[in-house]
Design goal:
This protein is an alpha/beta fold. It has helices spanning 38-49, 63-74, 138-151, 168-177, 185-192, 198-201, 245-257, 263-277, 283-286, 290-299; strands at 2-6, 9-15, 30-36, 53-56, 58-60, 83-85, 91-97, 103-108, 130-134, 154-158, 180-184, 211-215, 221-225, 228-232. Strand 9, helix 3 and strand 10 (154-158) form a beta-alpha-beta unit. The longest helix has 15 residues, at 263-277.
């Protein structure tokens, strides 16, 4: 079982001609309201690939919360651990998407803000082989790593906006406490103070058990471990919406990692998941299924050896 912890949201996806600048105004040409949240999208991605997944987070006891949980149950995800809050609403994110598929996001946390270190217990992790944290707070991130290390469970984290207010020292300490780390080039630069080039990545001194995934958008990704650096190329596809690409990448990587594939193979599989994900109009719909990934890998002649 893979347990994922994080936000349960409703996404308001607004198609716009361009992303606005300060004091600017843009007109929405199309609006979609769909279930979202990084942890949820990651869970859906894993489930569609064939992994067994459980989700933990907080949701409002409202219509949006019920729709969100129902959508996860339909994806064969265990939501029995989710806490329903009576005194606040389900969180939401406004996502602006321009003609090139680039995005700008504004989040309203509400019930998600209830997630706290006291929730993170050994009992919560009792049936988990891997625990993945998605866009959690610093205190929650520390507690997840602590409990995972104590129970010898593989810990995984996808950096999000809440951590970006922290200092380099704090971010590096979080990285050092996890087994699998996923972050984009902006988060990496925030954590280390330099851009993730191969030369710069070679200066990192990671723990022996740490595997760092740095995603670079259309430029691919780097996988950094104690054994060296792997550069994983991206795949050229028509881009519709990049929302959720990181969640798809993480789902693909962890799904293949638990099958003991090489890090290079895990990265290629993850890149294929991210490529297919961005060809559709929202994060949830774009999460590919196992047969779609296999067809894509065969069509691109991708070797997973």
């Amino acid at each position: 079982m893979i347990l994922t912890i994080g936000n349960i949201n409703v996404d308001l996806i607004c198609q716009v001609p361009r992303l606005p600048s300060p004091d600017d105004k843009v007109i929405v040409s199309n609006l979609e309201i769909v279930p979202g949240g990084g942890a949820c999208n990651f869970a859906v991605g894993l489930s569609r690939l064939g992994s067994k997944v459980s989700l933990f987070g907080h949701v409002g006891n409202d219509q949006n919360g019920r729709v969100g949980l129902t959508s996860l149950i339909e994806e064969q995800i265990d939501v029995s651990k989710v806490i329903k809050e009576e005194d606040c609403a389900t969180g939401f994110v406004i996502i602006l998407v321009d003609k090139e598929g680039q995005t700008m996001k504004i989040g309203y946390r509400e019930a998600n803000a209830k997630l706290a270190p006291k929730d993170i217990t050994g009992q919560l992790f009792s049936d988990a082989k891997i625990v993945h944290a998605s866009s959690v707070s610093t205190k929650v991130a520390h507690k997840i790593a602590q409990v995972c290390n104590k129970m010898s469970i593989i810990s995984s984290i996808d950096f999000g906006g809440e951590l970006m207010i922290e200092t380099r020292e704090v971010l590096q300490k979080i990285i050092e406490s996890y087994t699998l780390i996923f972050l984009n080039k902006i988060a990496f630069e925030k954590a280390y103070g330099f851009f993730p080039t191969k030369e710069n990545l070679e200066t990192l001194r990671l723990n022996k058990s740490t595997i760092l995934n740095v995603t670079l958008g259309h430029e691919g990704s780097y996988i950094v471990s104690h054994d060296g650096i792997e550069k994983i190329p991206s795949f050229e596809v028509p881009v519709v919406d990049t929302t959720g690409a990181g969640d798809a990448y993480a789902a693909g990587f962890i799904h293949s990692y638990k099958q003991n594939l090489s890090l290079s193979a895990c990265g290629k599989y993850a890149a294929a998941c991210a490529a297919l994900q961005i060809t559709l109009s929202n994060a949830r719909d774009g999460m590919p299924r196992k047969d779609e990934i296999e067809e894509f890998i065969n069509a691109k002649n991708i070797s997973l050896n």
